[in-house]
Amino acid sequence: MTAIRDSLAQYVAVRRALGASFYEPALALGHFVDLLEREGAEFITTDLALRWATTPVLVERATWGRRLSQVRGFARWMSVIDSRNQIPPTGFLSARRRRNAPHIYTEQEINLLIIQAARLRSRTGMRALTYSTLIGLLVATGLRPGEALRLNRSDVDLVSGILSIRESKFGKSRFVPVEESTRAALERYAQGRDRLCQQRLSEAFLVSERGIRLKAGTVRSMFVRMSRAVGLRPATEDGRDRYGPRLQDFRHSFATGRLVEWYRDGLDVSRELPRLSAYLGHVNVGLTYWYIEAVPELLELAAGYLGKNCPGEQP
């Protein structure tokens, strides 16, 4: 077995250990390695990847794009082992809109955003209280922004510290337990909200300055302002916004942080991952696995973990 074929066996083993069936991609990548071995290549090149991806004739371009995407995932894995391996650019043979890589917030960036949120001015002070609490909630739980905005007062158990997420994405509902510090912060928010908005105009847990449920578009616009204020979203000379970190990226940061902690602690991530997947409300564990390919640090940790615990494992 060549070194690159042995690396493919390890790559497939990781994908399957984390819940993906990975049957068709494993077969396809095996054929790609056949090409590398026939060419005497010791590492992956973009030229060879493109040649292999476009080999089938009388097929749709999407098929070529899917084959190249399979090689791209394997190439990311291989580049951790040997930097000579080339990762085919994402613009080649793109068959669909490319998924943006997540921004993983640092602790310093999170602190700056919460401080900026607490400085937001409004007539009653409700805006600062709500936005600082919203950011803290997303950081602490990994909720989707829409899930946080749809929380009703009855969905937040301030005694036991459990959030009820009802019919979220794909119609899934779940219970989300929170840490004691998060429960206490939510309790303080509820007390402040009821003091500043004594007239109950909405069943929403998080409310606006007017005491009604926050609108998603308004929240996104406010977050852009806060991001620009702390230097996370620079503007062009004509004043237009450049693309920058999103509210959704707090969810990515939460998931990535848990995976990094588990790998560093030497835990069996294949056993822990289903718990994280259920906590986040993913339909299947394969969606959670995406974070490993999206974040280079996780890819390196996963490769190191498998090298220590599953040397030479076969697909």
Walkthrough of the structure:
The protein has 315 residues and is mainly alpha-helical. The chain contains 13 helices and three strands, in the order αααααααβββαααααα. The chain has two domains: 3-101 and 267-309, no CATH class; 107-229, hpI Integrase, Chain A (Orthogonal Bundle), CATH 1.10.443. A hairpin with a 4-residue loop joins strand 1 (156-157) and strand 2 (162-165). The chain starts with a helix and ends in a 6-residue tail after the last helix. Residues 311-315 have low confidence and may be disordered. This is Integrase. Belongs to the 'phage' integrase family.
Q: Measure the end-to-end span.
A: 13 Å
State the strand order across the main sheet. 1-2-3
**SSE sequence, one letter per element:** HHHHHHHEEEHHHHHH
| Residues in helix, % | 55-70%
Mean pLDDT: 85
Q: What characterizes the major β-sheet?
A: 3 strands, antiparallel
Give the overall silhouette: elongated
Tell me the domain tally: 2
Radius of gyration: 23 Å
Number of discrete helical segments: 13
Strands, count: 3
Strand content: under 5%
Contiguous runs where pLDDT drops below 50 for at least 5 residues: 311-315
Assign the structural class, choosing from mainly alpha, mainly beta, alpha/beta, alpha+beta, or little secondary structure.
mainly alpha
Keywords: DNA integration, DNA recombination, DNA-binding
GO biological process, one term: DNA recombination
Protein name: Integrase
Pfam families: Phage_integrase
